[in-house]
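Quarterly update from the structural biology core.
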Amino acid sequence: MDLKFNAEDIGQISIGAFALSVPVAFSEEAWKMSASLPPLNLLLVVLLSLGFITLFAYQSVFQANVAKRVWVFAFRIAAAYCLTLVVVGIVLLALDKLPLLTDTWVAIKRILLIAMPASMGAIIVDSFDKE
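Predicted structure, tokenized:
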């Protein structure tokens, strides 16, 4: 696997995140659930998201070979999750379902909740052209 992180990687992660965020972002259930989700449950959603994309990246993208490239591995996970958050935020903004100025906490919860499936799409598409 190449140790670089380039525009192609950004594009793949963004497309994967977009592909799985759109169906969920259009769902009124996701909007309502994010408004009522308790902080501990939200933390669990974030940990599950990060855990599953880490496991997938470890097994598929890096093929369990991270000993000499731990920082690259960690960077790819962080980059995939952060890009996912941005893509989800843009999708919600486009749908006028991101109340950043009026209800910031709900907006953040909405992004984090929808990022759960979107982050898996991001890391899966990112893995397509790897080793």
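The longest helix spans residues 70-94.
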